[in-house]
Design brief:
With about 300 residues, the chain is an alpha/beta fold. α5 packs antiparallel against α6 and α6 runs parallel beside α7. The structure holds adenosine-5'-triphosphate. GO terms for molecular function: ATP binding; ATP hydrolysis activity.
């Protein structure tokens, strides 16, 4: 197994540094705290899912990480560097240097629809001073090298997202921040993004990816944070999330299957005895792991699309 895969299997690199840390990160608009005291830790080398229902504060958090929105309170450290909030030359210079090592795609990619993919990349090349090799490599990674001659207005949504990602990765950033890159994509488009992100992660890029649809990004992430109303509800590996939840107790009786949630392991005999006393004939007693979706619904109290 390759090193990156071993790291992904274990979910978290032992002793790996956190590439993003925030402490008490808060954004208030008027009296409303849309991000409320977030302590985030994004491990280096992870594909980190940032999950929460619509309006829970994901975009605002990502914008604060990218210095596009100024926090009301709290601190941010990215790539080992504290991101000062001041407007002095020191803070501005630090932010510029750190931001140069990050690639991002926030909301829809800003591309010119009446130009081809290649022409859009040329504009990015001029802005960022990219080499020919960097442009070619980025288009190859997102598999748009052959579609580069096509007008972007003729691209599918998935192709536009991939072009946006090509623009974000062309300068070979160490950290990639993607806001809802799978939003609106069909399963094939989501699979393309998944393969692309795993390939980038294999090259050592840390990826933070947000979504309000757990099912869309579950297979591409290893660690995750769940927020709701701007507050952190969970942070850790997928395995740790599963461990948090007690598997459902399933009892098959003559009348069918009874499912009981949140029954501790040592309470199983009592539940079975109670059913037998009530006259039930028990055929099978087993435990079933809740799905990640179920665990999320419990965390956020909201079903379906988070
Ligand atoms: N500039 C602003 N002024 C006032 N309220 C804002 C502003 N920007 C965002 N909000 C509010 O902050 C809350 C969080 O919004 P945000 O876009 O961060 O959530 P989100 O989790 O990214 O949701 P979505 O998945 O819908 O994009 C929302 O209630 C939104 O209306």
């Amino acid at each position: 197994m390759r090193e990156a895969e071993v790291r992904r299997e274990s979910g978290r690199d032992c002793g790996a540094m956190d590439i993003i840390t925030t402490q008490g990160l808060t954004k208030a608009y008027g009296a409303t705290r849309v991000v409320d005291g977030l302590d985030l830790r994004v491990p280096q080398g992870s594909v980190f899912g940032f999950l929460g229902p619509n309006g829970s504060g994901k975009s605002t958090t990502m914008k604060m990480l990218l210095s596009l929105v100024r926090p009301t309170n709290g601190s941010i450290e990215v790539l080992g560097t504290p991101m000062g909030r001041g407007n002095g030359d020191g803070d501005r210079g630090t932010r510029r240097r750190v931001l140069g090592r990050i690639g991002s795609l926030i909301e829809a990619p800003s591309v010119y629809p009446h130009l081809t993919g290649n022409e859009n990349m040329r504009i990015q090349q001029m802005i960022l001073g990219l080499t020919e090799a960097q442009v070619r490599r980025a288009l190859e990674i997102v598999r748009l090298d052959t579609a580069g001659q096509k007008l972007v207005k003729q691209y599918s949504l998935g192709m536009k997202q991939r072009l946006g990602i090509a623009m974000a990765i062309a300068h070979q950033p160490e950290l990639l921040i993607l806001d809802e890159p799978t939003n609106g994509l069909d399963p094939a488009g989501i699979e393309e993004i998944r393969e692309l992100l795993l390939e980038l992660a294999g090259e050592g890029v840390t990826i933070m990816v947000s979504s309000h649809q757990l099912a869309e990004i579950e297979r591409m992430i290893d660690t995750l944070a769940v927020i709701d109303h701007g507050r952190l509800m969970f942070q850790g590996t997928k395995a740790e999330l599963f461990q948090q939840a007690t598997p459902d107790l399933l009892i098959t009786t003559d009348a069918g299957v009874v499912r009981r949630r949140d029954v501790p392991a040592d309470a199983t005999p009592y539940v079975v005895t109670e059913l037998v006393r009530a006259g039930a004939r028990i055929h099978e007693v087993r435990r079933e792991q809740q799905t990640l979706e179920d665990i999320f619904i419990e965390l956020t109290g909201r079903g379906g699309a988070l």
